[in-house]
Amino acid sequence: MRNKAVSVADGGSTDTQRRIAARSSFPDEAMEIGGRVWYPHHLAFGGPAADFQWRVKAVNLEGLTVGMLEYGMPVKITTGELENAYQVNFPLFGRVRFSQGNRVVLGSTATAAIHGPVQATSIQGWAEPTQMIGLKIPTALMYEELEALLGRSPGQPLDFEGSFDLTSHRGKEWRSAVELLISSLRRPDSLLSTPLVARAAVQYAVRGLLLSAPNNFSEELAGTVEAVGSAAVRRAVDFMESNAHLPLTVESVAADACVSPRALQLGFRRHLDSTPMEHLRSIRLRRVRSELMSGTAATRISDVAARWGFPHAGRFAIHYAKTFGEHPSQTLKKSTEPGRL
């Protein structure tokens, strides 16, 4: 029977990780399962259908998917635009040909291919035994880490050159970060089953990629900009205090302080051990707390939070509790207790 040739083990979902291990001798099932793990794709294979073999192991850690992929015969995988993710692939052994638009990368143990979210892609290989590692990194996660490194909004799309030398010093370091993620494929009880450890490992891998793989922000990320002095930081803080209700950016704050965004970022790190956006968030959190402490039974926490630039209720509540040691609802409850003036 058809389903006897298929084996799928799904580890289910937790806050930290979702995992899948599957194998199949049927191309359509490989495409269906593989499409759930990676992207919808078309599969062309160079051999008798009866000889088809496919295997995948993958785990989702804090939004990032890392997996191992194998085929038992030559295949070509084609996808449309990745749309909402970046993809990084390299073989642990064997060779694979990657292409996206006019870019072609011959992937090996020494070279990784990086595909952006636009343009169709293709992967061709497995004429020889090959085990490919793939990282699917959501664009939201990639840009979140890029913004943290730059200390400002990127302002333009992130574009990698397409290939990454894994034999360079930085390449070797980054590969070691990926091998840590891969360890969770082999052992579900690894340290990465702990959310804080998984989050740190994912951040290390994504930031390491941004700092190491050639891209259009590499020069700025490696720059030697001088940090601004305490006076410029004070001007920036005063500006944020007076305009916290406005949709401020690092660029607008830096322009008011007459410094560059990068120099302001470094100045905040040096003098306040923070970033401009982290400091702005703390100002806004204090404004929210002030309103809640004088609130009434009709006060809606979500309205107050949104007014001060916190549209996402879940993230706001986490930041609030971490800053003040209590939930927003507890603060509001105190203000509405009978007998409180």
Please describe what this structure looks like.
- This protein has 3 domains: 2-218, Sandwich (Jelly Rolls), CATH 2.60.120; 224-274; 285-341, Homeodomain-like (Arc Repressor Mutant, subunit A), CATH 1.10.10.
- The strands form 2 sheets. The chain has an 8-stranded antiparallel sheet, with helices on both faces. Strands 3-6-11-8-9 form a 5-stranded antiparallel sheet, with helices on one face.
- The chain is α+β, with helices and mostly antiparallel strands and 341 residues long.
- Strand 8 (96-100) and strand 9 (103-107) form a beta hairpin.
- Helix 2 crosses helix 4 (195-212).
- The chain has helices at 27-37, 139-150, 169-186, 195-212, 218-221, 230-243, 250-256, 261-272, 276-293, 301-307, 313-324, 328-335, and strands at 7-13, 17-24, 41-45, 54-61, 64-71, 75-79, 85-93, 96-100, 103-107, 111-115, 121-125, 131-138, 163-165.
- Residues 1-8 and 11-16 have low confidence and may be disordered.
Query: Which spans of ≥5 residues are poorly predicted at pLDDT below 50?
Result: 1-8, 11-16
Through-space gap between termini: 75 Å
Task: Identify the CATH homologous superfamily of the largest domain.
Answer: Jelly Rolls
State the name of the first-level CATH class of the largest domain: Mainly Beta
**Number of structural domains:** 3
Helix content: 40-55%
The global form is globular
The profile of the biggest β sheet is:
8 strands, antiparallel
Structure classification: alpha+beta
Give the spatial strand order of the biggest sheet. Answer: 1-2-4-5-12-7-10-13
**What radius of gyration results from the CA coordinates?**
24 Å
List the quaternary state of the chains: single chain
